[in-house]
Amino acid sequence: MPSAVNAKHILGLDILRFVAACLVVAFHYCFLMGINPEGLVGSASRGVVKFPELYESTNFGWVGVQIFFVISGFVIAFSGEKSSAFSFLRSRIVRLGPAVWICAPITLLATILVGFRQHEDMYRAFRHSMAFLPWVPWIDGSYWTLGIEISFYAAVLFLIKFFKFENIKILAIVIGVVSSMFWAVHALAGIEQLHSFGPQLKWVLEDRLPKLLLINHGMFFALGVFLWSELIKKHDVKNIFWIILFCMSGCAQIVAESDIVNHEFNTRYSAAIPCAVWLASIAIIVLSVRANARLHRLSGGAVKAIQIAGMMTYPLYLLHQIVGGTMMGWMVLNGADRWVALATVSIIIFVLTGLIATRAEPWIQGWTKYLINYIHDRYNSMRIRLVK
Q1: CA distance between the termini of the chain
Q2: CB neighbours of residue 91 within 10 Å
Q3: Nearest-10 crossing angle of helices 272-290, 218-228
Q4: Is the pLDDT at 231 greater than 70, yes or no?
Q5: pTM (whole model) above 0.90
Q6: 299 and 12 Cβ atoms separated by less than 8 Å
Q7: Per residue in 30-48, pLDDT tens?
């Protein structure tokens, strides 16, 4: 039987979120910025900052996104179980909106200062980001994952509204099996050179719609749901089967992603490391649940620090790329050593996102929740009057 957990907060997930965000930050700062100077973060730094000494140890940091998706599946199942459709929708808006509404204007300012985008594209990207439009352009490349997260939230919201939350595992099986089948076909096509699948595979890999339909990443969310079912609800052999299947298909996606990165940047890094890091993150989720009671017995300061690290993750993910690249490029162009620039900018970004997470974001979240409740109450009142 699963060990008892604190129903309010699993501290280990905060630690894992923060580590995943740091992996993504390291990938952008220490690999992508240098190896792709014409890309978004490379352009923000004006192409003058490179850390080839760190390529070997940071090239796989993109796997932090796959870790985020698994955590999302787990947390949404954990938090959505006792939610109404309205409370679930409200919680997602309050969780996602304020950080974007804070971070996107800061990124816009950095983009204006650097001037590496045409104004028309820049303001269009800003509008897309502020409105959570799920297609390009966005003010920062990191926003590509938000539409995918929202697609999963929308599927769960539909389930809560029109069916029963108890069917969450059926939803997970559907999206997980579809994405697993895609990556199985992809692996087969790669091995057997089944060229007849080429155009279709390319469309699913490159087009935005399949990603929003969770064809590319559905198994990660599904894995999170079944981890929740096994660890929080009750042990079931069927849970173990689906966990193993989605771990296998998750590794297949990560291998494919590694191949794509190698092809794009003419590198030959092994997929074994990102697979190992991702599988280790699954083990950490299990340990986090099992050890949650012990983690909550840490000193109040330690618990608070872990919670703040978890809170920082989302604004850190949104803010670091363009803003950090801009500051780093400016420092190096003005004579700073690149290592000093890396250390200084990293500290600034962590401090800034800490302040956003602990000061600005909670304040806007409070007002957002108040406005949603107000609109909801007014709507219900008007509907009652119309009925009468």
Answers
A1: 52
A2: 17
A3: 30
A4: yes
A5: yes
A6: no
A7: 999 999 999 989 999 999 9
